[in-house]
Amino acid sequence: MSPATEGKMIYEDLKSKFDQNGYVVIKNFLNEKETMELKDAGEKLTENVPAGVKTVFATSQTKQVADDYFLDSADKISFFYEKAALDNDGHLQVDASLALNKVGHALHRLHPTFEACTYSDKVTNVCRALGLVKPVVPQSMYIYKNPGVGGEVISHQDSTFLFTEPDSLVGFWIALDDATLENGCLWVIPGSHKTDIHKRFIRNPDKSSAISQTIFQGTHPEYEQSLYVPLAVEKSSLVLIHGKVVHKSEQNKSQYSRHAYTFHVFDEGISQYSEQNWLQTKVGFKPLYIV
Known about the structure:
The chain is α+β, with helices and mostly antiparallel strands.
């Protein structure tokens, strides 16, 4: 039996569910050992933050992404703090192990634990079941969402940040803790991938601008809260998210962490990655396979 046939048999109805709703939850995607290896690796990253790095990440702001540290992170392992973890002078207000928002954006290439997960048979089987011809990984992130400081992620579409034409972006979001209503689980609007991409986040074409090296184009509409569905999932679960699905997460108001490993895939066999995207690699994208 070929890998393509095997993948389709394992996830026989995956594509129809994904096409209909724009997201799919796969329980027990990883076993306990694989889940713990990823979380242990993520926790070890907090012990190796380079001295002097104090870049804050917040999806609702543009100034934080105006610096070269953020723009050069496509081919590196870079560290980004929660706003609530630092005071106005950049001094830590919480323990260093709880201060990070995320680490990105080349874990899938530069860290063996995350590379092994990203390019595993489990992931390629999902991509085959979705019918992807030449899936490649443009970026990856370890997201912490720690208790007390883990902030809100506002409503957005991932294709705002990683635009491909035609759109073929798929997010792989792997829960490394139980994701609950209290600690900031994902919320999605089913079927919202059937709308347009509302907003683009690009490198500022005005190179002389002293304001920001990145800009937003377009406006993301306000959606009624009643349209959102919470995705409270157990650790080891995989959430597949279409690039155009509108989703968000709330602040972590619990005493428990909500760690996740996430990466994005697009089909380089049918789509072109935009040269305007904020994230630009110098080494290209490694395919998971080629049909």
